Fold this sequence. Notes:
The protein is α+β, with helices and mostly antiparallel strands. The protein has seven helices and six strands. Helix 6 crosses helix 7. The site of zinc ion has 8 residues, from helix 2 and helix 3.
Amino acid sequence: MVRVSTIEWSADTGPVDERIGEPPTLRFPDGFEYTESWKRAQTESDQGGPINDAERMVYLEESSKPHRVVFVLDGARLRADCGCAGYHHRQWCAHVASLWWQWVRGRIQVTHRQTGREHEMPPCWLRFGDERHDVREDHLDGLTSAELDAYLTCDLGETGVREYARKTSRAPGTVGNLLSRARQKVEDGVAVTDGGHR
Ligand SMILES: [Zn+2]
């Protein structure tokens, strides 16, 4: 399993609920398209770059300094956090908005924390707000990275098993087995089933 070892909160091995300061799930505020942050995201270039698999520096043209931003896929969600005042107060800012803008245009890659997969565009299974999949994130914790990737792509993302098997160079039967194990674990909510890694 590929782990993002450089991010601070992944070093905490305690239960998720007990972690303090875990980066929030990205949400788009109502009317975000009309916010100044969204306008800046579209008009100002970013001179920043990746720090590690989970964080980037964002340095917008009109900013006086760069901002360190968490931007990483985790389970079935996208986590985003920024140290600026705007994000602290509104959970939305030009720096996070810029990364989303860049990502949907294929300009940056975003890593999935558990599977290690680099996504050049938002994956088909990613949903926000009321559209989010009704799946318990803690139930996803028990899946191996291969099971999780298959479950996200085929079940949540509604990609055909054969298409996914072809893209990942595997036999459809292998993917079918991964999926049935994943579904069982998600249903049962078995947290530790991958050899005790978590
Ligand atoms: Zn910010």
